C-alpha cells in the first residue's frame, strides 16, 4: 500500500513539473488573460497582483465607469469585449475607499521572477487610464520607474512573448480624495496576453 501511495505521489510530481515547464505559448494562447499588477504610488514598489482569465477574445478595450465622489464615489474598469470587471473600488471624499474587485491579490513573493529583466517598451506604449476629464496623473509620471517595479516578473515576460505590441495601461487608484493621502494610492498596470 505504501508503494502505491508513493507511486501516485511521484506521478503527481511529474505532472506538476511538466505543467510548470510548459512554454508560455502552450499555456497562454489557449486562454484570454489580463494581468493586474499593483505598484505603490510613492515608492514604485511592486505590491502584488492577479491574473484574470476570460472567454477567448482577441480584442481588448478598457471601459471605465466613474462615479465622482461627492462624498462617496467609485471607479470600475471593465473588459468591454467580454463585459467583465477588471477592477472595482470606492473613492471617499475626506476618507478612505477600498478595492472590492478583485477581492484579493497575490503577494509579490507568489510571482516567479526572471534573471534577465525585460527591456522597457517605448514610452509611447504607456497609456494612462483617463476615467474622467479630471483624472489625476503626475505631469512627469516616471514610466521607467513603474516598469522597473515589474520588469523582472515572469508573467510580464510571458505576456510580452504572446502579445509583443500591446499597450501598457496605467491606472492610478486614489481611494482618498479631497485631502487625499498619497500613501494610500496605488498604480495598477494592466497587461493583455
Topology:
Layout: H1 2-21, H2 24-28, E1 32-40, E2 46-54, E3 62-67, E4 72-79, E5 84-93, E6 99-101, E7 126-128, H3 143-150, H4 154-162, E8 168-173, E9 176-177, E10 186-192
Parallel strand pairs: 5-9, 7-8
Antiparallel strand pairs: 1-2, 1-10, 3-4, 4-5, 5-6, 8-10
Sum up the structure in keywords.
4 helices; 193 residues; 2 domains; five-stranded mixed β-sheet; 22% helix; alpha+beta; globular
How would you describe the overall organization of this protein?
The chain is an alpha+beta fold and 193 residues long. The chain folds into 2 domains: 1-29; 31-192, no CATH class. The chain has 4 helices and 10 strands. Strand 3 and strand 4 form a beta hairpin. The radius of gyration is 19 Å and the shape is globular. The termini are far apart.
